[in-house]
Amino acid sequence: xxxLNDLEKIRKDDNEAWFHPWESMSGAGAANRTVISGAEGIxxxxxxxxxxxxxPGGMWCMQLGYGRQEMADAISQQVMQLPYMNPxxxxxxxxARLAATLAELAPGDLNHVFLTTGGSTAVDTALRxxxxxxxxxxxQSKKHIISRANAYHGSTYLCSLVTSKDxxxxxxxxxxxxxxxxxxxxxxxxxxxxSPQSFAAEKARDLExxxxxxxxxxxxxxxxxxxxxxxxxxxPPDGYLRKCWEICRKYDVLYISDEVVTGFGRLGHWFxxxxxxxxxxxxxxxxxxxxxxxxxxxxxxISDRVFSEVSGERARGATFGHGFTYxxxxxxxxxxxxxxxxxxxxxxxxxxxxxxxxxxxxxxELRDIPIVSxxxxxxxxxxxxxxxxxxxQDSLEFDSNLGARIDQHCHELGLLLRxxxxxxxxxxxxxxxxxxxxxxxxxxxxxxxxxxRDIEVELGITIA
Length: 464
Prior knowledge:
This protein is α/β, with parallel strands linked by helices and 464 residues long. It folds into two domains: 34-67 and 347-459, Alpha-Beta Complex (Aspartate Aminotransferase, domain 1), CATH 3.90.1150; 70-345, 3-Layer(aba) Sandwich (Aspartate Aminotransferase, domain 2). The chain contains 14 helices and 15 strands. The protein has helices at 7-17, 57-60, 69-81, 93-105, 119-136, 157-161, 196-214, 240-250, 272-275, 304-307, 330-345, 348-364, 396-412, 434-459; strands at 38-40, 43-45, 51-54, 112-116, 144-148, 179-182, 219-224, 254-258, 283-286, 298-302, 372-378, 381-386, 415-416, 418-420, 423-426. α3 (69-81) packs antiparallel against α11 and α12 runs parallel beside α14 (434-459). The longest helix is centred in the last third of the chain and has 26 residues, at 434-459. The mean pLDDT is 95.
């Protein structure tokens, strides 16, 4: 992959014109981001043509890897045949076929599929449906939503209300008296004297206690990621989600499973809710891996049980007045159908179930590095958290710098990271091999060790 010829102009346009997501305003106009010039397989190429393993898999989404010719062919063919149709009054074969396919792949009776533009709009749809559902049923007070610490559910206003990333200061005017957060379920917080089973039960009791505090007649839904991805790849204790699902059933609270990250093979199954965590949610949201990142698309899946209560003779003449210009976009729908076809044909779910344990065991080997404070994950998603215990106080600025240093060293070693403060998260393309996992972990180890040595020299300390 050749280096870019007009790099200076690209970087100038980027710095001066493109207002990026999650832009650091103090550095706006001088970020000098890495410019990606191309990609192939599990690799991306930077502005100098340097090949890097894509550790975060784009943003948790590049299931199939880059440069799939049949993806390009399917997308281009659909562009020429039908590039767009009005989803408010019309339909198309790809959109209808995708909805039926998702209903077939989903657990339980999740047979009603609202197609959206991405993960945020899928979650936004789910939350609006909760409001709609309870209004139709004449339960206007049943609108409170319960979420969790470390949750990330998207960037629309509604999604932001149910998001809680504990170390990020939020400068927006958000907050709602009808949204509530439960304490963290991170197993690393389990007291030494408490068993994991008891910790799971205690965390589930947090949900029941909150429902009882608010009054079940006022609680509309509980929303939870099977694994909290952007919150630091927090894997809940065994049995926790099942207990929460049972509590929701007990108190007539809708259970929303946010599978934007965990859906479409990340944990070795189409959806993680039933096959991994033994729950059948009322609503599932998904996106990202649905099209393997080739085009933007999301979906909100709603159960027959819930849908039937506000449709037909029970609808009270209501219209679900919600939608997007690009809902069910035919080209994006074809990208999703082709992604699903390739995953099935190449047995990628089975591949993830085979290499996932190897990936997790290799990551765990990094625990012997003194600044590695925790390693966690499941399937092909993982997190390596680093901390300098020798420092007297917790510092967000220092930890952010720590993650950035590791990222820079790893870049030089041929590995792209996505540091979330001091947490290095991984969600590589699902087609990654064991030998490529070895390369990734080797670069990660060397990058962390180099960072640790830098800090020792700069601060005049010995890290043990």
